[in-house]
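Why this split exists: single-chain examples teach little about how molecules sit against one another. For that reason, every record in the complexes split bundles all components of an assembly together and asks for one structure covering all of them. Below is a record exactly as it appears in the raw files.
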Amino acid sequence: MSLLRTPLYENIKAAGARFVPFGEWEMPVQFAGIQAEHEAVRTRAGLFDVSHMGEVEVRGPDALGAVNRLITNDLEGIVDGQALYTCMCLPSGGIVDDLVVYRFSREHIFICCNASNVDKDFAHIVEHLGPGAEARNLSERYAQLAVQGPLAPALVQRLTSVDLSTLKRYFFTLGQVAGCETLISRTGYTGEDGFELYVSNDDAPKLWDALFAAAAPGELMPIGLGARDTLRLEYKMALYGNDIDATTTPLEAGLGWVVKLDGRDFIGKDALKDQKEAGLSRRLIGFKMDGRVPARHGYEVVDADGAVTGVVTSGSHSPSLKENIGMAYVPTTSSAIGSPLLIRIRDRAEPATVVKTPFVSR
Amino acid sequence: MASSPIDLRYTEDHEWAREEPDGTITVGVTHHAQDALGDVVYVELPAVGRVLGEKGTFGVVESVKTVSDLYSPCAGTVVAVNDALGGAPDLVNRACYGEGWIVRIRPTSETAIAHLKSAEDYDAYCAALSH
């Protein structure tokens, strides 16, 4: 089967992308290099093609209530025009996906989900969506460009008459950007200020080119999935399939802040409530390697006798810190900041230390 | 893409090998390899004296994104390692055919690397990989 290509394939190819298969998609892993791209987003601005992400729209007289029964966070806690980071769980409390949910109105909810989960998520939503709402999978219609970094607001402002200074973090609006009808969302997956811009597939190449045309030399770089991963890791943002999945709960993953157990029922609530009351046996922590060898996804956390006690879910060299960082599930008894860990790397047990997260601060 | 140095021999695993006047073989990774790896952040070196089989793993190169094993181009014994890589692993990116060399091996056979690819063949091999 040939890989899917986003509407921006020709643009990113022309920008010098090195492509890799990413799930069903042919995506850019890097352009200039992970280190350079990472620094660009932290100090200037970067542009990401994230058109592989999925979009599901839910409409109906009780769209808000219907979606609220599928997610762990609470749409009653935000206003129209605001977005919400949340998990969607199984009855077991295991995570189906992590989502950004946009509240247009009580009758209109828009959901952004992970590319590899689109079909699974849509089936889950359709199966469990109660009366009073209907879901549509719009993933094939929308492209998404993320503009991230300290210079991103000024750059996007040059292309729109929408006053972006009034659009606060995790708020969104509809407006024209470079003449394209755009859902402008002040969100991202890098820890930096910036926007995620949803446009029609047809408009995506025009918006990509307009952003580069509006940027001063050196202001904006194209960014691949490699730097996207190091950027999100430095802020301990979970990556579905690595740090969270159907076998992990939001509480274990440190996402208790998006689990609202008071009030309405939602799928997984009972299990999460039980887990909270019983106490967690393992937690997703951030660690730094004491030595120079990076730990990677899947490496085992071991005790002094070599018995496996946990697992590394993400691990990389941190381009900002020049240290090796990662996330791992470890027993709660080893999860306090400062706790020593041992991680099996090839034939050795390498020391690491549990540290405060995010690893960097803005 | 720049063509590979003609005085070296190459493996399909993207190591280069150079025969030194004293008969030892210096080994590193190719431009193609360092480019594919991206920013190198750690190189795991073997102990001097370690005995290697042809295509045996002798170390690991870690970039920001990935881990890649190093394979010996010939059977022999490690006689030197590039300790400079400990403090500056990015030498592999900046000077893969020079200061970014990785190990030196005393081969068990005098013609240990004669069967490896020439620069021309290696360049053709890389060109075929990228299509």
